[in-house]
Amino acid sequence: MPIKVLIVEDNANLRLALKTLLSLSGDFICIGDYDRPNPATSFTIVPDVILMDIDLPGENGIAYTRRIKVLYPQVNILMLTVVERDDKIMEAIYAGASGYILKSAMPENILEHIRVVHKGGSPLTPSIARVIFSNIQGAVESGKKDSITLTAREIEILDALVKGLTYKKIAQRYFIAIDTVRSHIRCIYDKLNVHSRSEAIVKALNDKLV
Asked: How many Å apart are CA 140 and CA 138, to the nearest integer?
């Protein structure tokens, strides 16, 4: 089954370029493209991955991401932007974005990032990853670590998430079913009070849980 991709980008030329790029690869299908957020936040066909710009007319892409994740938590949102500001990157992650890459990325890299996020990964370009780690390393210890109690298996799975392993790879590594992996991850999210893989990774590294 091709990966269903929705594009939300106000630059008409870039939007067309992305649609053309997707059409040239047999494992993707573009199910729609918007030049601004949809006020209704409803989809006739629910996308697997959304390519989301940040600077959109009216409501920005971060706020739109937050609305979408409330109604469609299973949808992976990949921020595709020119913005490298620290606050925007972290805000997008906490809003529920699964990855954050620059529009200057090579076309083949954009396609690979979509595949990675669809498989459960969290793609980040090197410069974005550096910003995230700089924020984590510079953060003041919150003292919340002691209030979080994870089982040994949950710590193993959280560590695997941080390392970018997909659910399938985690299941293979620990000889458990994918449904069991999902169950553990739901418990981890509840204990960490997060709602996405990206948030869990930031929390794990920030609080030195792994």
From this structure: 7
